[in-house]
Amino acid sequence: CERPSSLKARAQTWSNYKHHNTVKFLIGITPQCVVSFISKGWGGHASDVHITENCGILDKLLPGDMILADRGFTVQESAGMYCAEVKIPPFTRGKKQLSKCEVDTARQLSRVRIHVERVIGAVKQKYTILQSTLPISIIMSKDDDCSIIDKIVTVCCAMFNCCDSIINAD
Fold first, then answer.
1. What residues have CB less than 8 Å from 75, skipping those under 6 apart?
2. pTM, full prediction
3. Mean pLDDT in order along the chain per 10 residues (170 residues)
4. 152, containing H or E segment
5. What is the DSSP string of 87-134?
6. Do 16 and 26 contact (CB within 8 A), yes or no?
7. Phi and psi of 37, rounded to 5°?
8. Which of 11, 72, 79, 169 qualifies as a cystine partner to 84, CB 3.0-4.6 A?
């Protein structure tokens, strides 16, 4: 997004990872690569854990659901309260190498998690409005607590769901 003139907004949207002002969304993807959840936009400074715990996705979990996440995505306890499980690739920290079992688990998770990255990339690529630097005016919330960017991302994800799947049906 554009760099806000307000120092507070500038700090809230700054992303150390991207090195500029950003808006972040949390999306849920089904095993069939359908977008099943989209959060409202959060400033780039918000942590993934904070967004996950405050965007409402946890309230939609059912017992037995599984969340696939990156390392450092420490929401196991929050998801556990809904009897859901969080799967994270094994860590190599403190080890020379992973065990055979850990390597197999990491490969299985990677095969599935790649679809999440493919969906996110496909939505961004298909809808070019999501590729440009967005004016701050569409990011600011309006009276109904839903900003224009929230509506744009929701519509882009809904239209993506109407397209052919990015994975082949068996």
1. 49, 52, 53, 58, 67, 69, 86
2. 0.83
3. 86 87 91 92 91 93 88 84 86 76 84 86 92 85 78 95 76
4. helix 148-161
5. E-PPP-TT-SS--HHHHHHHHHHHHHHHHHHHHHHHHHHH-GGGTSPP
6. no
7. -155, 140
8. 79
